[in-house]
């Protein structure tokens, strides 16, 4: 809800570091920007991770990049984690396996909900005992495969909520629309109820209250106050003028209607983005707090 | 005064009253301040948690190092002392309303960080210690904790920035003054870069 509001501040905050390598776009469970893995290997891993998510619900992704630039691998990794939000919301059971090939560094970024199943010590051991030796010989696919196998094995033993039938597909854009429709519906109902209640009182009050409700819902939808307030004031004044001109107190809920149509208009350009392609993969909203471990090879 | 007049006056009075109330409950930012104040507190708790986690690792770490490198008294004493001084600063949320205490807390944690990195440098001289299973485990835990501290601090910085912007912009600044919400102290950026570097550990 408030994401829109946080974004500039986050951007500002991350701007204190020197040139940052941009975060790749999340489209698949395996993102290889170095062409280290063959297509067959990529799809092999991809399917393995996909099946696991279907079965267990946890999202595990692999990212191979050339370098993390001026940042340490930890800094880059947490930025990526905050951007992608791998793992389910609330359960926070996502894992990111990040390999910075030219830096010869790797990291497991462990979601908050898996820090018990995969403590730092364990993920370090996986890296040092299984992945590093293979990476040293240049066997990248084998090393990655080993690392992922071990991680999946650990998550397997953790009692997690059942995967919901849709969680492994991209979050359908419908959900947001549904939410939105719900708000609009609620707004209209509230407007009508209020209009009905105050029919016997003052029609101006209906307008005012409808405006207020509209504002309140707008706030719920994540519009900032600065955007809403001037528009609402204008809207309110306009309504007042209309009402005074009409002197017609019988139009209960009219204010509610205008309020709703106004916010639906406002929201259409509020920058709601949702992935709409049917087969793409996206994070489920899991959060990370920096757990995991890094190693070189 | 006719009844109509009376109604009109009551009407305008009510409208004015409702309008004003709505205007103030929405636009004075009181609720925004409440929400963000709470977020800052939560972010701060996370920072304290992670520092606590680090402090809990220290005794084990010191004992493990002692087993191999008892002659490195200086460094070990320094770490132990830093650990004690960290414990002496009460890091309650009240710290946030007291820049002096906040600075003190930071200083103590900073000393802890530097004492630890010196310890890790000393460790380099003892191959047996470095290959000790429990030491390797502790080292991984310490690294992970240091990273968590860095993340928690960054999130605290973000939430405080947001809160401070809120309480310093018009018209929220009026509300903040009335209800006594002050700007909260933040980690400075230069300091941040220095402290958030985890101790360098070579293998």
Automatic annotation (TrEMBL), chain A:
Q: Identify the residues that the record assigns to the TPM domain, covering every copy.
A: 30-151
Matching Pfam families: TPM_phosphatase
Region annotation (Disordered) maps to 255-297
Q: Where is the composition biased (Low complexity)?
A: 259-280
Ranges annotated as biased composition (Gly residues) = 281-297
Signal peptide bounds: 1-18
| Superkingdom field | Bacteria
Q: Where are the transmembrane segments?
A: 180-198, 205-223
Alphabetic keyword roster: Membrane, Signal, Transmembrane, Transmembrane helix
Listed name of the protein? TPM domain-containing protein
UniProtKB/TrEMBL annotation, chain B:
How does this chain sit within the bilayer?
Single-pass membrane protein
| Compartments it resides in | Membrane
Stored InterPro entries: LemA-like_dom_sf (IPR023353), MamQ_LemA (IPR007156)
Look up the record and report any one GO term of the cellular component aspect.
membrane
Keyword annotations for this protein?
Answer: Membrane, Transmembrane, Transmembrane helix
What is stated as this protein's family in its record? Answer: Belongs to the LemA family.
Name assigned to this protein: LemA family protein
Which species is the source of this protein?
A: Leptospira hartskeerlii
């Amino acid at each position: 809800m408030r994401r829109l509001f946080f974004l500039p501040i986050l951007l500002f905050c991350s701007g204190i570091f020197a040139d940052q390598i941009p975060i790749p776009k999340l489209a698949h469970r395996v993102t290889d920007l170095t062409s280290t893995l063959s297509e067959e290997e990529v799809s092999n891993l991809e399917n393995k991770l996909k099946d696991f998510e279907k079965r267990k619900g946890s999202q595990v992704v692999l990212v191979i990049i050339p370098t993390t630039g001026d940042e340490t691998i930890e800094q880059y990794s947490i930025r990526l984690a905050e951007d992608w939000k791998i793992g389910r919301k609330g359960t926070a059971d996502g894992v990111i396996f990040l390999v910075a090939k030219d830096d010869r560094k790797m990291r497991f970024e462990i979601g908050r909900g898996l820090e018990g199943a995969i403590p730092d010590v364990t993920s370090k051991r996986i890296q040092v005992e299984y992945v590093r030796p293979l990476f040293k010989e240049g066997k990248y696919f084998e090393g990655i495969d080993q690392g992922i196998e071990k991680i999946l094995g650990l998550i397997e033993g953790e009692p997690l909520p059942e995967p919901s039938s849709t969680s492994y597909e991209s979050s359908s854009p419908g959900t947001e629309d549904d939410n939105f429709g719900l708000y609009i519906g609620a707004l209209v109902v509230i407007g009508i109820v209020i209009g009905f209640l105050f029919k016997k009182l003052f029609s101006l009050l209906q307008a005012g209250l409808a405006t207020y409700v509209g504002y309140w819902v707008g706030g719920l939808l994540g519009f900032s106050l600065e955007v809403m307030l001037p528009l609402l004031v204008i809207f309110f004044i306009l309504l007042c003028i209309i009402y005074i001109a009409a002197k017609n107190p019988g139009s209960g809920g009219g204010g509610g209607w205008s309020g709703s149509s106004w916010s639906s208009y406002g929201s259409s350009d509020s920058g709601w983005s949702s992935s709409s392609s049917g087969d793409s993969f996206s994070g489920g909203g899991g959060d990370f707090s920096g757990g995991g471990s890094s190693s070189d090879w | 005064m006719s009844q109509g007049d009376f109604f009109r006056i009551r009407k305008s009075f009510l409208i004015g009253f409702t309008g004003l109330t709505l205007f103030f409950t929405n636009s004075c930012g009181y609720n925004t301040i409440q929400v963000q104040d709470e977020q800052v507190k939560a972010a701060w708790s996370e920072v304290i948690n992670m520092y606590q986690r680090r402090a809990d690792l220290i005794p084990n770490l010191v004992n493990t190092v002692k087993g191999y490198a008892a002659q490195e008294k200086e460094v070990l004493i320094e770490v132990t002392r830093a650990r004690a001084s960290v414990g002496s600063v009460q890091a309650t949320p009240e710290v946030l309303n007291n820049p002096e205490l906040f600075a003190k807390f930071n200083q103590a944690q900073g000393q802890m960080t530097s004492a630890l990195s010196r310890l890790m440098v000393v460790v380099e001289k003892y191959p047996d210690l470095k290959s000790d299973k429990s030491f390797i485990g502790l080292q991984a835990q310490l690294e992970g904790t240091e990273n968590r501290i860095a993340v928690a601090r960054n999130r605290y910085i973000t939430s405080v920035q947001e809160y401070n912007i809120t309480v310093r912009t018009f018209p929220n600044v009026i509300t903040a003054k009335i209800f006594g919400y002050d700007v909260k102290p933040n980690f400075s950026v230069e300091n941040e870069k220095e402290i958030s570097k985890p101790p360098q550990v070579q293998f």
